[in-house]
Write a structure and sequence with these properties.
By secondary structure, the chain is of the alpha+beta class. It is 47% helix and 21% strand. The protein is built from six helices and six strands. Strands 1, 2, 3, 4, 5 and 6 form a six-stranded mixed sheet that branches. Helix 2 packs antiparallel against helix 5. The protein is globular and about 45 Å long. The mean pLDDT is 88.
Length: 155
């Protein structure tokens, strides 16, 4: 097993093998570590969730994703973004702020993509809060009894 997978599994797997949902604070720390150790993955996705004592909600329409390709032309980028789109328009919002296709081994582009993901978190948190209020009638106190977290997949 490689250093990358051991490193990431330390964040995303519990000792019993179950998935650990990374909190926002842990996500900041993980991204800082990826950047400071120049750890590049072929792909990594961060799937947002909201959890509280009563339910768990996957926010799959706001997945954050980075993928490396051997070559990245404008045509390939365009095709990449087209392939990410869904029939339902609400999945396509901010797609270029949440999905990143980068040249393989371009550490600077990888770090910029990670920075862009961090920058997008404010919009994501506002979106989740708005959705919870409108669809689940959560108020401010209810919102504070739960937390936003991420399931992480990588290759």
């Amino acid at each position: 097993m490689s250093y990358k997978s051991n490193f990431l599994d330390g964040y995303i797997k519990l000792k019993n093998g179950e998935t650990h949902y990374v909190t926002i604070s842990e996500l900041y720390h993980l991204i800082d570590k990826l950047k400071s150790h120049n750890l590049m993955l072929n792909s990594i996705s961060f799937v947002p969730f909201y959890k509280n004592r009563d339910f768990q909600l996957e926010i799959d329409e706001r997945i954050l994703y980075i993928e490396q390709h051997a070559s990245v032309s404008e045509e390939e980028k365009s095709e990449f973004y087209e392939n990410q789109k869904c029939e339902e328009d609400f999945y396509n919002i901010d797609i270029t702020k949440r999905y990143f296709l980068i040249q393989k081994n371009d550490i600077d582009a990888y770090k910029r993509s990670l920075d862009d993901i961090i920058a997008y978190l404010d919009d994501l948190i506002r979106y989740i809060q708005k959705r919870l209020k409108s669809e689940y009638n959560l108020n401010e106190v209810d919102f504070l009894t739960g937390y936003i977290c991420f399931e992480i997949y990588y290759d």
